[in-house]
Amino acid sequence: MTPAARVQSAIELLDSIIEAARAKGAPADRILAEWFRGNRFAGSKDRRAIRELVYGAIRACGPVPASGRAAMLRLAEGDPALEALFDGSPYGPAALRAGEPAAEAGIAPEWLESALAASGIAGPEAAALLDRAPLDLRVNTLKASRETIELPAEAQPIEARGGLRLAQATAVEQWDAYRDGVIEVQDGGSQLACEAVAARAGETVIDLCAGAGGKTLALAAAMNNAGTLVAADTDRGRLSRLAPRTARAGALVAETVLLNPGRELEALARWRGQADAVLVDAPCSGSGTWRRNPEARWRLTSPDLDKLVNIQARLLEIAADLVRPGGRLIYVVCSLLDAEGPAQVTAFLASHPGWRSDPPRLPVGIPRGTGLRLTPFHDGTDGFFIARLEKA
To answer: Of the residues 146, 161, 185, which one is the last residue of a structural domain?
Structure first.
């Protein structure tokens, strides 16, 4: 493919991504994967270049662009070589028109950028949300240790106890260590959120929003496969992916529980008041993960955020019912919006006098309300809010 043809392909992909963002359709990575499968003429260098153009344009725009072309023109501003490819050549983009507008720059749609600023995320802190994320691994201590593991590429230790950082785009899925469950791909901040649970051998621990089980596997390793670990979620598809992952990692999960939305406590009745620890990795806006999913900020609306806040509050109520006296509840969101973090915990404590805050003791992070905040700019991790609550 010529450079201009790559640009035109990226523009067409951006049109699909913008349409999907407005309609809450497929995410960008899936749209790209399907396009690559259907266009075999694009070689590996073409695919790499197109991917870079697409994600570069997404990061360059704040509000949802009017079109893929407008988004690409935003990326081309300040890049004369890219702008020169808008020349009307065969298979390339049409020539630039006089005064043709580019998409608007920024961090996010205006309402969301304002909400972040009100939550203390502005300037360099906000800009870092659109950087490219590193590749972090967690060494599975059921099978190895960070100190002795040997990997095909150089890796640097990070603050998480079993964490390692590799160069971006390292193909770890091809390594024996990955296929054998010796390592798992997991952001350093996510690993630290699991450390905040302080799960121990012999305890009863419930991962209330387990999803596909990334944090569940980390909890099993922390418990050394001794105790009762329960993984629960309302998403059957995601939960079904846990079994092969636990088998590969050699992790023991006592029970996997599919929850019926609105009737969660019926399925969890036997653990009411019995859990030493409950992890609530709640559904959220994902504003702390924009480095990996930058188009996600185009999908979120203010009503969406209100619904998420209500879901989070309900999950805290469910978790509180499961914790035994003297037990703990760890609340985590990969969001940097105060409405989903400090405000949630403040409201919970105000309505539950039998609970107190016990902020997590982690090697990184900045106190925010009654919890701890991790950010890409300050800590080099995805953005997280982590709170630890104890029941009298």
So the answer is: 185
**Res. 392: pLDDT tops 90:** yes
In whole angstroms, what is the distance from residue 334 CA to residue 383 CA? 6
Q: What is the CATH number of the domain that holds 174?
A: 3.30.70.1170
Q: Does residue 74 sit in the same domain as residue 214? A: no
Nearest to 156 by CA among 179, 188, 196: 188
Please say if the pLDDT value at position 169 is more than 90. no
Domain region containing 303? 191-391
Regarding whether 338 and 239 lie in a shared domain, the answer is yes
Q: How far apart are CA 36 and CA 38, in angstroms?
A: 5
H-type alpha helices, the chain = 3-23, 28-38, 44-60, 68-76, 80-83, 110-118, 124-127, 176-179, 188-197, 214-222, 236-240, 242-249, 264-267, 296-299, 302-322, 342-351, 376-379
Q: Is residue 123 part of a domain?
A: no
**Percent of the chain residues topping a pLDDT of 70:** 100
Residue 78 clears pLDDT 90, i.e. is over it: no
Q: How far is CA 379 from CA 3, 169, 318, 362, in A?
A: 37, 21, 31, 11
**Spatial CB neighbours of 8, under 8 Å, sequence gap ≥ 6:** 91, 92, 93
Q: Are the beta carbons of 3 and 85 closer than 8 angstroms?
A: yes
Strand partners, 389: 329, 357
How confident is residue 40, by pLDDT bands cut at 50, 70 and 90? confident
- Say if 145 falls within a structural domain: yes
CA distances to 210, 220, 257, 259, 309 from 235, in Å: 9, 21, 10, 8, 19
Strand partners, 184: 138
Quick check: pTM over 0.90?
Answer: yes
Instruction: Average the pLDDT over 48-74 and give the result.
Output: 96
Q: Which helix (H) or strand (E) holds 287?
A: none
**Mean pLDDT, the chain, whole residue set:** 96
Positions marked catalytic: 334
Q: How many CB atoms lie within 10 A of CB 43?
A: 10
- Please state the domain count of the chain: 3
Quote the CA–CA distance of 216 and 231 in Å, as a whole number.
7
Mean per-residue pLDDT for 84-104? 93
pLDDT value for 21: 95
